[in-house]
């Protein structure tokens, strides 16, 4: 099948595949809301709530690691089809869950499905795109992630007080979306880039995309530096983003003298700000100015937490911090990480690398969340100093590596003969 027809439908591929981000955010927020309802309905102990919540988070990390590798080994299409089936099964178990055990099993399946889907779906988008729209299409996944949160929040506000039926509606929403996405994905053929790389590898053709397929290749030149840099960049900046999202309201209410309502009023306008930022990122993601925007975003992200370190925590400084983080994050966080990752690795390592980067970031965030309350005992300033350090280190890793790289085109260069294979053959 020629590549041209799939590339002509690249926006369709981007929407259908990018819904992985919608389902990811809807699953996280929906499970969190529903768990409160299930705790009362099933009389779950506090430790059981913690275990169920942790099971989802850790399963997403494990799923990304496994799914990314499977996507490179067996193809994009079978994996992103199987993940939607897994999500539907998970949702069905959660809707009917009669006990803590089934809730936990559902959480694990949901986490594995959504986690495994992310790296494979991103690779599918990148390989259906062209050099002119790849960043834009990958950036669309960020918008869909926000949409998932908004839709789930609205839905929870409507059905959240209905008790168990409300939780079932929230889970059903995820299942229905997954079913529709599954139908849409059945219209998407296997990635042409992956099929060509697989066929060349089977035939013993010594191209870069055929030869560079082993996990250990990620830790060897020329991939080790961008791989480790992206892993550090995302893990460290995600520590900041996850802490702000998970504990932000708690911090400003407990230590900043705000009410829950005031905290919500601050968070609400950040959604359109983030959306506008992501739209702007899509506009510049494939152009020569994207690194300039990354640098501006990086400064804003660092200053966002430094504001509270210098001026202390109050409703005003918290609002300023949130605004700076929303704008800066659009250009110097997950969106650019996805683009750099897809552009930095050949086809048979692409989703493996993406899955590993996402997985390490999720594991790190889960670990910090466990000790964040203990850090807060030492003072809010201590936490925000730590978050500032995380931002500086993570963004510095990305800046140091990618400032010397023009917009790379690994999609063009990977068809070339593998110089390592050539040198080995010459020596023989």
What would your notes on this structure say?
- This protein is mainly α.
- It folds into 2 domains: 8-190, Up-down Bundle (Growth Hormone, Chain: A), CATH 1.20.1250.20; 215-406, Growth Hormone, Chain: A (Up-down Bundle).
- Helix content is 83%, strand content 0%.
- The chain is built from 18 helices and no strands.
- It has helices at residues 3-8, 10-41, 46-74, 76-96, 100-128, 134-159, 164-185, 192-203, 208-211, 224-254, 260-284, 290-311, 315-332, 334-344, 347-377, 380-402, 410-413, 419-427.
- The longest helix has 32 residues, at 10-41.
- 50% of the residues are buried.
- The model is unreliable at 1-5 and 424-428 (pLDDT under 50).
> What overall form do the CA principal axes indicate?
globular
Q: Largest sheet, described in full?
A: none
Distance between the termini: 37 Å
* SS elements, strand count: 0
Structural class category: mainly alpha
What is the alpha-carbon Rg in Å? 22 Å
**The CATH superfamily title of the largest domain:** MFS general substrate transporter like domains
Compute the number of helices: 18
Fraction in helix: over 70%
Binned strand content: under 5%
Give helix and strand order, one letter per element, not per position.
HHHHHHHHHHHHHHHHHH
- What is the domain tally? 2
Q: What's the pLDDT, averaged over the residues?
A: 91
